[in-house]
Amino acid sequence: MATTTEQGLEVLLSRDQIATRVREMGEQITKDLKGEKLVMVGVLKGAAPFLADLARSVQVDATFDFVAVKSYAKGSRTSSGAVKLIKDLDEPIEGQNVLIVEDILDTGITLTYLRKIFLQHHPKTLRIAALLDKPSRRLEQIDADYVGFSIPNLFVIGYGMDFAERYRNLPDICLMPAEGA
Ligand code: PRP
Predict the structure, then answer these.
(1) Over the stretch 32-46, which tens digit does the pLDDT of each residue have?
(2) Which of 103, 106, 133, 172 is catalytic?
(3) CA 172-178-181 angle, 5° bins
(4) Ligand 1 centroid vs 62 CA: distance in angstroms?
């Protein structure tokens, strides 16, 4: 039987499952960095809890930066050009090891856009960590270097992910109930 939260939401990935997987991702990233420094770039807002936990799982000398994007393609799912940077990086990333931290890789439109503009700044390395991946939804050819969980096309909320800005603070990743349910 599926686990449910006190609010009656069905849990897809529990806080314990998330914590275990995030620790594993952190260990892998630590190994891959081979003692070098890291700039962790969170994509607001959904990536905030994941970045906070992942950052404490990597054992490297790390700094944080944040970007925010607005996706005009949401809903229409047509154009990869329909993404706008509404908050840029605070610090230059030239020559740095950069890790883009995302809660979810869906169509790939957002990360394709971010990867393109970040590469123009000539980082030493550019990698992507996505807690969730929905490969069946991909419109752009892009993969994350580190994926927490590959999931089917489900509407998920919690651990940073929202519905109309709500539910971001749920500790578990839950399924959004169908309207009227
Ligand atoms: C989500 C997620 C990614 C993007 C992925 O952000 O955090 O940034 O969508 O989708 P894509 O692969 O189809 O481009 P959202 O626009 O919901 O904003 P939020 O992080 O503020 O919730």
Answers:
(1) 999 999 999 999 999
(2) 106
(3) 100
(4) 24
For atom 3 of ligand 1, the residue with the nearest CA is: 104
Mean pLDDT (the chain) is: 94
DSSP state of 137: G
Spatial separation of the C-alpha atoms in residues 9 and 151, rounded to whole Å: 18
**What is d(CA 82, CA 140) in angstroms, rounded to the nearest whole number?**
13
d(CA 72, CA 79): 9
N residues, the chain: 181
In sequence order, the 6+-apart residues with CB closer than 8 A to the CB of 126 are 98, 100, 115, 118, 119
> How many angstroms separate the CA atoms of 1 and 58, rounded?
34
